[in-house]
Amino acid sequence: MGAYILRRLLLIIPTLIGIMVINFTLIQFVPGGPVEQVLAQLQGEGDAFANIAGGGDGAGAEQFDQGGGYQGARGLPPEFIAELERQFGFDKPPLERFLNMLWDYARFDFGESYFRSISVVDLVLEKLPVSLSLGLWSTLLAYCISIPLGIRKAVRDGSSFDSWTSGIVIVAYAIPAFLFAILLLVLFAGGSYYKIFPLRGLTSSDFDQMSAFGKVLDYFWHLTLPTIAITLSSFAGLTLLTKNSFLDEIRKQYVVTAKAKGLPEKRVLYGHVFRNAMLIVIAGFPAAFVGVFFGASLIIETIFSLDGLGRLGLEAVVSRDYPVVFGTLFAFSLLGLLMNLVTDLTYIFVDPRIDFESRET
């Protein structure tokens, strides 16, 4: 087992390098880099990317004018442009910049944000609690709902309960998370009906003055609507997965034999079927958490005005804050790869009969 874990950990290194190579190469072809952004602001042109995409002042959609300089650099001394390039590191060739970045990342030195005067690590740690809260609680809530409901649907397969709950699950799966989030805001956050939950933020303005119990209540009060919005789309698929997994196990011969021996139905279900059927469901928890953590955070954070990693990534891409873009990409990729390993280890924990080591030999 130790050799398998070591091989998986070593495999992470070339995978991370491949991800960074692809994204670094793509960035080289994106117009409106950080230097162009600064020059556009100095010239009072707003967003450099918008000017490039819209044709700017008629010079076309190229990042450089016919004289070889930046479009936004007209009237600015070349020395100033060269200093900007040096500050942003663009005075070096792309290959050297990429190798320097990999060396820094190998030492977990992600640099400093171009426009926020804060290190990327501190910036990520500042935004992490919001996204971590959304991912953790929505995943736990989805599992708490889906597992009992899926088991119940499998036991009563074909009944009226199975039919009408399937209808609810299908409708929930079909509703986009952002649309349900807006509906929750309108209904319960001071829209046209009730003002029960706060409209934005993760805590209240007087959070620091609250007692410990008051802080916990305030935290979950703010987290209720966004967590429900994310859970709606994730619990539907998990419920069907649980049901189908249990149905597959219930129809196997060992269950028929256990029932024929006179074992009570609950003992057969929870003593024999449960561990085998829940293997794929429980072992998929790390992957489900990462999926919610990455997938729904941007939209939900934007709708509920939560300052998390999703909004941070979007703002970094728009402003061409490359240290933040590549730093978060590296961290997210590393987390995702480690979670894949944790998923495999969870399979072994749930069912010790699984041996990845022997499968590879």
From TrEMBL:
<dbReference type="Pfam" id="PF00528">
    <property type="entry name" value="BPD_transp_1"/>
</dbReference>
<keyword id="KW-0812">Transmembrane</keyword>
<keyword id="KW-0472">Membrane</keyword>
<feature type="transmembrane region" description="Helical">
    <location>
        <begin position="9"/>
        <end position="30"/>
    </location>
</feature>
<dbReference type="InterPro" id="IPR035906">
    <property type="entry name" value="MetI-like_sf"/>
</dbReference>
<feature type="transmembrane region" description="Helical">
    <location>
        <begin position="163"/>
        <end position="189"/>
    </location>
</feature>
<comment type="similarity">
    <text>Belongs to the binding-protein-dependent transport system permease family.</text>
</comment>
<dbReference type="GO" id="GO:0005886">
    <property type="term" value="C:plasma membrane"/>
</dbReference>
<keyword id="KW-1133">Transmembrane helix</keyword>
<protein>
    <submittedName>
        <fullName>Inner membrane ABC transporter permease protein YejB</fullName>
    </submittedName>
</protein>
<dbReference type="GO" id="GO:0042884">
    <property type="term" value="P:microcin transport"/>
</dbReference>
<feature type="transmembrane region" description="Helical">
    <location>
        <begin position="277"/>
        <end position="304"/>
    </location>
</feature>
<feature type="transmembrane region" description="Helical">
    <location>
        <begin position="130"/>
        <end position="151"/>
    </location>
</feature>
<feature type="transmembrane region" description="Helical">
    <location>
        <begin position="219"/>
        <end position="242"/>
    </location>
</feature>
<feature type="transmembrane region" description="Helical">
    <location>
        <begin position="324"/>
        <end position="350"/>
    </location>
</feature>
<keyword id="KW-0813">Transport</keyword>
<keyword id="KW-1003">Cell membrane</keyword>
<dbReference type="InterPro" id="IPR000515">
    <property type="entry name" value="MetI-like"/>
</dbReference>
<dbReference type="GO" id="GO:0055085">
    <property type="term" value="P:transmembrane transport"/>
</dbReference>
<keyword id="KW-0997">Cell inner membrane</keyword>
<feature type="domain" description="ABC transmembrane type-1">
    <location>
        <begin position="128"/>
        <end position="347"/>
    </location>
</feature>
